[in-house]
């Protein structure tokens, strides 16, 4: 079963965060608070996917420049402000992968692989561990890989994944379970 996400934020936290966003909308200098709060997590998200520090720094800066330029468009949707930043980062990464044919890096840990195996309800976990890693690394396309990373490796909720990918929560669930069904068929 999926454990609690470290990305979870309480209602009070969301309200406080919204005050910070509103202040930054009124005065761009106040964006510095949001930048300081989210720079490191956004950088780590990007760096885990490109495995090149200089490229990660550049993309992270692009994310925050776009966020600042488009802050007036931000609308609260019941998820953390970070989800909006991750959506921008996701878009920038996809642009990078498409334009420059940069290889996507996947950081896979065994616990996350076991979560995937449990989700597809296989009883012989050990037997499938290496096969799952191989399939994830070599056979999933970029969009599917991003979704699996967010759900199983980063432990994000479907609601937050939907916000980042700019899809409905139901679509995030359906796409995830279709990927898991494909993994199950490949394993068998």
Description:
The protein is an all-alpha fold. The protein folds into two domains: 11-100, Orthogonal Bundle (Rna Polymerase Sigma Factor, Chain: A), CATH 1.10.1740.10; 110-187, no CATH class. Helices cover 72% and strands 0% of the residues. α2 (31-50) runs antiparallel to α3, α2 packs across α4 and α5 crosses α6. The chain is globular. The chain starts with 10 loop residues before the first helix and ends with a helix.
Features:
disordered N terminus; 2 domains; 72% helix; mainly alpha; 9 helices; 188 residues
Topology:
Blueprint: H1 11-26, H2 31-50, H3 53-69, H4 81-100, H5 110-119, H6 125-138, H7 142-153, H8 158-165, H9 169-187
Residues in β-strands, percent: under 5%
What's the number of helices? 9
Structural class: mainly alpha
Give the total of beta strands. 0
- Average pLDDT level: 80
List the quaternary state of the chains. single chain
H/E element order? HHHHHHHHH
Quote the CATH topology of the largest domain.
Rna Polymerase Sigma Factor, Chain: A
List the domain count as a whole number.
2
How many angstroms separate the termini? 22 Å
**Sheet with most strands:** none
Over the alpha carbons, how many angstroms does the gyration radius reach? 17 Å
What is the CATH-assigned architecture of the largest domain?
Orthogonal Bundle
Percentage of residues in helical conformation: over 70%
Q: Could you give a short description of this structure?
A:
Helix content is 72%, strand content 0%. The protein has 188 residues and is an all-alpha fold.
């Amino acid at each position: 079963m999926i454990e609690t996400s470290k990305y979870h934020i309480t209602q009070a936290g969301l309200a406080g965060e919204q005050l910070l966003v509103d202040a930054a909308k009124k005065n761009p200098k106040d964006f510095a608070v949001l930048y300081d709060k989210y720079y490191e997590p956004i950088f780590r998200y990007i760096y885990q996917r490109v495995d090149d520090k200089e490229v990660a720094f550049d993309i992270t800066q692009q994310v925050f420049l776009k966020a600042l330029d488009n802050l007036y468009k931000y609308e609260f949707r019941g998820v953390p402000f970070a989800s909006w930043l991750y959506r921008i980062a996701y878009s920038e990464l996809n642009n990078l992968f498409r334009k420059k044919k940069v290889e996507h890096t996947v950081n896979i840990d065994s616990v996350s692989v076991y979560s995937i195996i449990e989700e597809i309800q296989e009883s012989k976990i050990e037997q499938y561990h290496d096969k799952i890693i191989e399939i994830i690394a070599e056979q999933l396309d970029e969009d599917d890989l991003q979704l699996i990373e967010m759900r199983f490796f980063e432990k994000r909720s479907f609601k937050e994944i939907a916000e980042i990918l700019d899809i409905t929560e139901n679509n995030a669930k359906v796409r995830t379970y279709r990927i898991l069904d494909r993994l199950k068929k490949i394993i068998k």
